[in-house]
Structure formats: C-alpha cells, structure tokens
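Data deposition worksheet. Section B asks for the primary sequence of the deposited chain exactly as it was used as input, without tags or linkers unless they were present during the calculation. Section C holds the resulting structure in token form. Section D is free text for depositor observations; keep each observation to a single sentence. Incomplete worksheets are returned to the depositor.
Section A, Depositor: J.P.
Section B:
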Amino acid sequence: MKVRNILTVALILTFQLVAAQQPSIFGKGTPTPQPKTENKTDSKGLKQGDWERYYNNGRLMYSASFINDTLVGEMVRYHPNGNKMAYIKYDDTPTGKGYGEVYDDNGRLIGKGNYFMSNKEGEWLFYNRNVLVSKENYINNKKEGISYTYYDNSQIAMETNWKNDKKDGVETAYYISGKKRTIINYKENLLHGHYFVFQESGRYEVTGAYSNNKMNGIWVFYNPDGSENYRLNYKDGVAEEEHLIEKQQTEMFERFEENRKTLRDPEEYMNDPDSYMRGF
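Section C:
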C-alpha cells in the first residue's frame, strides 16, 4: 500500500465532486431534432423570431425567441420524457441577460442563477430535494472565487477557491461538527503548498506539503493523542524512508477509514442531479 494511496483517501474526505458529462440545455450532446416549424434566419444567417425543435420521439425539445441571434423573452427546454429541463427568462431586448432554473428529469429544481446567453454568470445555487448543497460563482461559464458545499443540515462541508475554472488557493473541508478536517493548497488545479489533515479533536493527523502535485519535504504523521508517530522525507513524490512505510501506512489507513465513517460526503445527497448540472 502506498502513502499516496492513503493520502488519496484524505483527498476524498475533502468532498471533491465529480463533474459528469451530461446533455446541455442549449443542445450539446442531444439527439438529432426533427424540426416541425419553420425556424427563420435572416440574410446574414442570424436567428430571428420564434424557434422550436423536437426530439426524435416527437416531443418538444425547446422553444425560444431570438432577435439577431440573441435569446429574448422566455426559453423553455424539456427532457426527452417531456418534463421541463430548464426555464430561462431573458430580457425582452437583446442584451443576452437572463435568469434561469434547471430541473432534473423528475421535475425537481437542481439549480438556479443568471445566464449571459448560454453561459452561467454570477452566483449559482444547486439543490437536491429542495436542500441547498452548493453555491458557486461563475464568470463566462467558468468558476471564479469561492465555492461552498454544504451538508444537508446547512453546515459548510467545504469551501474552495477557484480561478478561471481551476482550483487555485486554499481548499478547506469541515467535519459536520464545524471543525476543520483538511486544509489543502492548490495552484492552477495542482496540489501545491501546505497540506494539513486534522482529527476532529483539533489535533493534527498529517502535516506536509506538495510541489506541483508531488509530495515534497517533511511529512509528519500523528497519533490520536497528537504526539508524533513518524515522519517521512519526500522528494518529487518519493519517500526516502521506504522501509518505514508499510507498517505505519496500514495503521494510518485504518484511522482514515474509521474517521471516514463519521463523515457524510455531500456526493451522497448531491447524487446525480448536481453532477448533471455541472456537465452543462
């Protein structure tokens, strides 16, 4: 068992969420539609007036209105089963600005926020069964600033810094009690800088650092009472004291697994709907 594998368990405990690729409300990845109405473009090829498109099963895919290729008024998008996928109210003049709500295929709200054309813009809130599970900020459809993930009791589970859709800066995860679980640093989506894992008592569990996604320098592993158990010196992701690793890692892995049972990963209640939204 490798130290990196055990630390991956710690990373899992930071509630990192997987973004699944899913159909877009603006048509990417959807079935080839069968037009039933005349969707007009002008001599320059710009969309004008009311547009509709249909799925191959004959159900309405979306209805929208355009002025000079810019969405105006109401846009409604539907799932193949006929349930509403999204409702966006754009300005009546062609500014491209709108406010939208997005639904899963059962008709439940999973996200709401502002759009500019087809891109998410500003603050977005994501839900599962009417429970807020995350809050994110977007610029031109890319995450920017601090995002928050919540436990189902509204307690913050994780806060992450983003820059141009990449993790950049500090990411902090919390126990459901509100105490810190991990403090991790990123630079352009790579682990870079100090890395801390805490016991719920507040004592250290692991301290170390990464450099360009590789463990680097002195890593210290602690006992439950906070005393030092052992330390390893890493260079470019490789420990110099390989002979110490197997026994110590097994003990630490067992502790991580025990602690993991006390945490509820937001993915458990975010489930597919939020992953669905993140695929837009």
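Section D:
Residues 20 and 272 are 8 Å apart (CA to CA).
The helical segments are 3-12, 245-260, 267-278.
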